[in-house]
Amino acid sequence: MNHFPENFLWGGAIASAQAEGAWNEGGKGMDTQDLRVFDASWDADMRRKNRDINMTGERFQAALTATDLEHYPFRWAIDFYHNWREDLALLEELGLKIFRTSISWARIYPNGDDPVPNEEGIRFYVDLFTECHKRGMKVFATILHYATPVNLLTRYGGWKNRKMIDFYLRYCQTLFERLGGLVDYWLPFNEINCSRFNPWNGCCLIRDQEENYDQAIFQCTHHQLLANALAVKMAHEMLPGSMVGGMIARFTTYPATCSPDDVMCALLDENYKNYFYTDVMARGRYPGYTRRMLKELGVEIVKEPGDDQILAGGKVDFLSFSYYMSMVSTNSSDYEVTSGNLLSGKKNPYLQTSEWGWQIDPVGLRISLNQMYDRYNLPLFIAENGIGARDVVAEDGKIHDDYRIQYLREHIAQMGEAIADGVDLIGYTMWGILDIVSCGTIEMNKRYGVIYVDRDEAGKGTNRRIPKDSFAWYKKVIAANGADLG
Ligand code: BGP
Question: Which residues of 135-155 are buried (b: 16+ CB within 10 A; e: fewer)?
Fold first, then answer.
């Protein structure tokens, strides 16, 4: 029996910084992703380290004036900026019902604090989203997927500064005014909990420039949560009936054993890493457990009178999350550590991992959906899910990615189970529908797409798009509305 509702939103997702390239074209300003460095000659260890080193004052200065552009992959990415018409044609052929991308803040406001927006940037998204609709796709737009105009960091210090809320809201207002009729679902922030787990991406912090890193992180988070609530309120006022969601990177967590200590550890991990953020966005207030969490970190968030009302006045209409893997919680050091999205965790002996060490756990998706729906009773949207792999073009010129088909098949089957459990799941935007530059490790060879992009890690290649085996498979799944996962 097929559990997917008739109007289920089968989709695909990308993010502007990871796809568009054209970093200094069309009036775009420099943003924080343009500054992230990568070297194709690095070994696996160095690539991992690079993710963790994140951003330093020295790297930041070097990147501002860099001329070796091949080391800054977000500046060229897959050139979606010039190729989007052809790409959307392929997505239409795939039968997508919804396309998720982010809007580049620095295309709309090159410096973040400009008095007027950049018309060329607005035109780009008007054209892109109009074409999506023409090709039968709804639009799911992320307002901020990490890439922030660099000027907001150099001039104001980034999200630590409360002024960021005003700049961000001005940007939102422009989007609601100029793109409002073209967007079906809004997401004010991608993975708002990323501020804690990758503070450069999440909130523009440079680690070696912070005296008290945790304090800075949570102050930024507070400002982002306020900005999120105010954006929801603004959208509801300017665009009555609009759907505005909250999003986290979901770290589904199991106790390592049934020892009460492990169970408690898992509960706190769930609260501190996931639910803190969704509780604020969906329930409109800081949950009780944050007192202890912040105290133990030595953090005291500076709030202004009225902040509690702001949070209470901007609750989201739906919740969404990225789901790639699950983790294990324990205070015991007897467990091997393995990698994962944004953070590493303890290894689960029951699960296989991807080439990057992320633990593959389809049932964890069903668990997460049930947990989130029980807790909030809001519609849910899986904003990202997929597997990063080193695809190869075979001698027949094709990409035989059975491992991706298997990953997607098992996860989609569990989505069906969750719907049968009673969860109100409205959509699924598979991550990296076209191969794009990886966000965590900046590698082009960590590919997620059902469409291959011929570009290597130094930016070389024809940039040609080639549908993979998974393309035909996903097309069939969409056409059958999930009834046929074969
Ligand atoms: C999420 C981000 C995406 C994305 C994805 C996969 O955290 O929202 O931007 O890239 O993870 O991660 P990666 O690209 O590091 O494999």
Answer: eebbbbbbbbbbbbbbbbbee
